[in-house]
Write a structure and sequence with these properties.
This protein is mainly α and 86 residues long. It contains 4 helices and no strands. The chain is elongated. The two termini are 13 Å apart.
Length: 86
């Protein structure tokens, strides 16, 4: 096992741990669509208009970025041994 594989594995483990923590930090989304359809409540609110700047939106963006990084790191860890073996 080469040094690059070990470093890649450690980075992969850290990325997995970060994604788990970020997912647990997010609030559960409720399904109010049926309730609002029956009661006539609208989604227009201050919170709805500023959704992109809220804590949940920031956590969702960071989680998405970490997921993409996890995918790229996983590919790199699996491709590196192919080119380093002789």
């Amino acid at each position: 096992m080469g040094i690059l594989e070990i470093v890649g594995g450690v980075i992969l483990f850290i990325a997995c741990a970060v994604i788990v923590v970020l997912c647990l930090a997010q609030e559960q989304k409720s399904q109010d669509s049926m309730t609002s359809a029956l009661t006539g409540a609208s989604a227009e609110s201050f919170y709805g208009k500023n959704e992109g700047r809220s804590r949940e939106a920031i956590l969702a963006k960071i989680t998405r970025i970490c997921g993409i990084l996890l995918f790229v790191i996983t590919l790199a860890v699996n491709i590196i041994p192919i080119f380093t073996d002789k």
